[in-house]
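Let's practice the habit of predicting before peeking. Look at the sequence and jot down your guess about where helices and strands might fall. Then scroll down.
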Amino acid sequence: MNDQAQTLRNLVQIQGSSEMKRTRVLTVTSGKGGVGKSNFTLNLALALQAKGLKVLIFDADLGMSNIDVLMGLTPQYNLYHLLKRQKTIWDIIQKGTRGIEFISGGSGFNDLLSLSEEELDYFTNQVDQLNGYADYIIFDTGAGLSKETLKFILAAEQTIIVTTPEPPAITDAYALIKMVHTMGHKVSFKLVINRVTDYKEGKQTADKIRLVAEQFLNLNISSLGYIDDDTHVSKAVKQQIPFTIAYPNCGATRSIHNIASGFISGQSNVLVDSDTNGVKGIIGKIFRFMQK
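Done guessing? Here is the structure:
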């Protein structure tokens, strides 16, 4: 692990010798559990990585972290070790399938809710070192309308909402959008419809949410795409291998790669927040919100 941490530091030093790229922050969430949000996050990250982008997943599902479980891993270090100053930000970055990097929340998030100003400054300064290291940091949040999830949504540059065609999932996804909107914050929402039988069902589901949001909230919400209801996904979960790796030719994998391609070509320009001071500003904003 020490060798890995030193390698990461060296990479950042090399990058720092030239014009630093901007690290962009995404939040992935859902109105309810069981819609495949974390599975989507992991496989989207792998698809983006396969297209030449560097991605870091931050497992922010409080008390229910499962990015590591989906890969059959037990992280050696997590956020707790950073907060206790036992490890640096580089030490807690873990490597998963195909070298995808992730940070496990572990039990550390409970401590984040009660940080002192000095501790918060230390934490945000540590995380700020990631600015320029990755193209994207993706926060995988808990499902539903918890206070913590809302703070990640409000602080991120863009939020992807994962839902399914089932009426309860549609209702909860819209409820989440409505709650955030009624708080008076401007958020860039994108939809991903999971487990669709065909393109028509996916489009109809997205249209239901999009049209209601436009009519009652005056919000323009677009869809990033649809993911097939594919039996290979559940097989991969049982095997603890991401389905894009276990079954590279299945329908769900093709769907994920289509979403990743569309995101790169048509959506990445949305992720510019001139009011946020890089990764440090976003992280600090998230956890200052949490402590209110």
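How did you do? The chain is about 50% helix and 15% strand.
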